[in-house]
Amino acid sequence: MGRIPLPAGLLLLRLVLLGFVLGASGVKPTPARASGLLDLLNSIAPTAPANRPGLPPLPAQPGRGKNWVGTRIHPIGLPLLVMAGHADSQRIRGSGTPGAAVGLGGAAPMEAGITDELYWNLRTAQRVVELGRQRGLNIQYYDPGLRTIPNQNDPRTNWSVGASHAAQGGYAMEIHYDAYAPYGIGPGIIPGVLYGFSSIDEALAQEFGGYPYDHRGMLGAPRRGISMLEIGQLEGRLENGLRDPNSREQTLDAIAERVVNALQKGLAHGPVGGTALRQ
How far apart are CA 263 and CA 117, in angstroms? Predict the structure, then answer.
């Protein structure tokens, strides 16, 4: 474990203390005595904590595609936490897209009081957790219950719960749908960056595509160790498949299948690799 370099002022203070101790004793400082006292002072210097998380630096130019590789592997039984993006930010900034049907076509929202994105985020996150449990994953779902929590540091928010989960070694992810054209970009994983790039995010990128880790200057959730999965733009065939009662369940099942398969593949490289690939 390495030492944190001492500031110049602290180093000067140590030298003054050394001179005071030696002067008070009337002893001329010999190299051996000086070295021993310096060792003593060094022994009480602060040390760098192990596994300190840290954000990667922002690139010189904003990322325009996947600019990371997920290499951090996990044990097969890794606790997974899935949340619905925007579940606690309705009627305030960051409430999610209304979708093309509402925003462009004038259709009624799927549920009064929330955006269509949140409606489908909730349904999709729940379906992913349901299927994941059937496949034997250690996976859980979190919903703050309150749809408007203005303080992002409130312990009930997605960010607070997800950050705590990630800090304890788990994997946390929010489900999202991107805005319709020309505002959205499309499907892909925005990786959590606080604890390094995960093999789970790498597997999700292989399935859905990958955003640059510094997307929009590095978003708040990834800065806290929470990944964000954009399923796709809420328009066209995808939105129609969700909105149509005759195809809704089939569409949700197909999306959940893709997400869970990727989660399993991301865990397959763990210490007992392969056992997660149960169908």
Answer: 22
Query: For residue 195, what are its two tokens?
Result: 């604890």
Interval 191-207: pLDDT, tens: 999 999 999 999 999 99
Tokens 């925003």 — which residue? Answer: 103
The percentage of the chain sitting over the pLDDT mark of 70, rounded to a whole number, equals 77
pTM of the model: 0.78
| Helix/strand/coil (H/E/C) assignment for every residue in the chain | CCECCCCHHHHHHHHHHHHHHHHHHCCCCCHHHHHHHHHHHHHCCCECCCCCCCCCCCCCCCCCCCCCCCCECCCCCCCEEEEECCCCECCCCCCCCCCHHHHCCCCCCCCCCCCHHHHHHHHHHHHHHHHHHHCCCCEEEECCCCCECCCCCCCCCHHHHHHHHHHCCCEEEEEEEECCCCCCCCCEEECCCCCCCEHHHHHHHHHHCECCCCHHHCCHHHHCCEEEEEEEECCHHHHHHHHCCCCHHHHHHHHHHHHHHHHHHHHCCCCCCCCCCCC
CB 276 within 8 A of CB 76: yes
**How do 80-84 and 139-142 pair as beta strands?**
parallel
Q: Largest alpha-carbon pair distance within the chain?
A: 94
Instruction: Give pLDDT tens digits for 178-188.
Output: 999 999 999 99
Quickly count: other Cβ atoms within 10 Å of residue 218's Cβ.
17
What the chain holds in terms of domains, given with CATH numbers, is 1-52 (no CATH), 80-267 (3.40.630.40)
Is residue 234 predicted with pLDDT exceeding 80? yes
With cut-offs at 50, 70 and 90, classify the pLDDT of residue 53. Answer: confident
Determine whether 134 is exposed, middle or buried from the number of CB atoms within 10 Å of its CB (0-12, 13-18, 19+).
exposed
Asked whether the predicted pLDDT for residue 22 surpasses 60, the reply is no
